[in-house]
Amino acid sequence: MTAELIDGKAFAADLRERVGAHAAAFAEKAGRKAGLAVVLVGEDPASDVYVRSKGKATIAANMESFEHRLPADTSEADLIAVVERLNADPAVDGILVQLPLPGDLDEQAVIAAIDPGKDVDGFHVESAGRLMVGREGFVPCTPLGCIMLLKDRHGDLSGMNAVVIGRSNIVGKPMAQLLLDANATVTIAHSRTKDLPDVVRRADIVVAAVGRAEMVKADWLKPGATVIDVGINRLAPADGESKGRLVGDVDFEAAKDVAGAITPVPGGVGPMTIAVLLRNTLVAAYAHAGIEAPEAL
Ligand SMILES: Nc1nc(=O)c2c([nH]1)NC[C@@H]1CN(c3ccc(C(=O)N[C@@H](CCC(=O)O)C(=O)O)cc3)C=[N+]21
Ligand SMILES: [Mg+2]
User: Fold this and answer.
1) Same domain, yes or no: 108 and 60
2) In whole angstroms, how far apart are CA 278 and each of 36, 101, 117, 146, 199?
3) Which residue of 23, 107, 114, 237 pairs with 241 in a disulfide if CB–CB is 3.0 to 4.6 A?
4) How far apart are CA 258 and CA 240, in angstroms?
5) Among protein residues, the one whose CA lies closest to atom 23 of ligand 1
6) How far apart, in whole angstroms, are the C-alpha atoms of residue 213 and residue 246?
């Protein structure tokens, strides 16, 4: 191993600690805690574990957690009615509707119903538009967490070559925009990109967000590159395992001997996502209370 490990878990713990202290100060000033509502439709066990860990993290950060669990056969109208109630609820500062939604519920229609001032996931078109034109707004938690890790390591990203692999609305596209805002030279690669290994080899910064286990190989990397692995893929259980291993989109075992720095999976980007969600919720709370948010947030 020659790469430095980028300890997202430790960075996230630090961020949560800071947010928790500011959230306590907020509660003093505002006379109420900041509140995050999470809506989970259906009974996917992985989502359930994840929603519960978010609830715990919210409470640990001195905020209020509201969970709404709805049956898998909930209609779009009923789901939107729940979102509208949360929009109107003054105890709720942030609303997260857990994706993916089951069945043929229209995710875009549901997200569009969220008050953009409570859109702590940053998935609303208003938030996406604000990010694109450089106006203040909520930025999706995963890419914001990634850019925090990159700025922590490199300080200034000006002129660096960044390659984002993946073009989703929730990671790839906002990630590219944040890198561009930091004056990196940005390439977005995807499933139709020609000569992907050669494209990745030019990168000083690689952000892998494709959702394919260990797809990015060590010999695709420029020696010394910084690698941010957004993927969280569960492998099939090997002999004697009850649960498969969790791996990223990068072949970590080989890549760690070529990269300059790399995030592990687990313990890299995943924990940052939750910490940033809490941070966004507290920013929303300050705005709702009409109190200026501390600079450090
Ligand atoms: N509206 C919405 N917003 C989301 O942000 C959202 C979502 N829906 N749906 C599901 C995905 C997934 N996601 C994760 C966040 C943290 C970890 C995380 O903390 N992972 C740990 C380990 C997890 C484990 O051990 O299973 C890690 O990477 O170290 C994972 C996954 C947020 N998502
Ligand atoms: Mg995410």
Assistant:
1) yes
2) 8, 22, 15, 15, 35
3) 237
4) 31
5) 266
6) 9
Looking at the structure, do residues 168 and 265 belong to the same domain, yes or no? yes
**pLDDT cut 90: percent of the chain above it:** 96
Give the residue, by CA position, lying nearest to ligand 1 atom 16: 270
263 lines ligand 1 (CB under 6 A): no
What one-character-per-residue DSSP string does 27-58 give?
HHHHSS--EEEEEEES--HHHHHHHHHHHHHH
Does residue 17 fall inside a structural domain? no
Query: What is the average pLDDT across 117-133?
Result: 98
| 140 upstream amide cis, omega within 30 of 0 | no
Of the bound ligands, which one is closest to the alpha carbon of residue 170?
2
- Rounded CA-CA distance 85/92 in Å is 10
List the domain range (segments joined by +) for residue 72: 30-127
ipTM of the complex: 0.95
Say how many C-beta atoms besides its own lie within 10 A of residue 54's C-beta.
Answer: 21
First-to-final CA distance of the chain: 34
Are 212 and 116 members of one domain?
A: no
Structure tokens at 27: 């509660």
Which atom of ligand 1 approaches the CA of 121 most closely?
3
The answer to whether the CB of 119 is under 6 A from ligand 1 is: no
Which of 103, 127, 151 corresponds to the end of one domain?
A: 127
Determine which one of 54, 118, 173, 256 is catalytic: 54
Residue 293 has pLDDT above 90, yes or no: yes
Take atom 20 of ligand 1 and give the residue whose Cα is closest. Answer: 270
Q: Which ligand is nearest to the CA of 142?
A: 2
* Catalytic residue list contains 98: yes
pLDDT score at 45? 87
Q: Identify residues whose C-beta is under 5 A from ligand 2, the ion.
A: 142
Protein residue whose Cα sits closest to atom 4 of ligand 1: 98
**Residues 155, 123 share a domain:** no
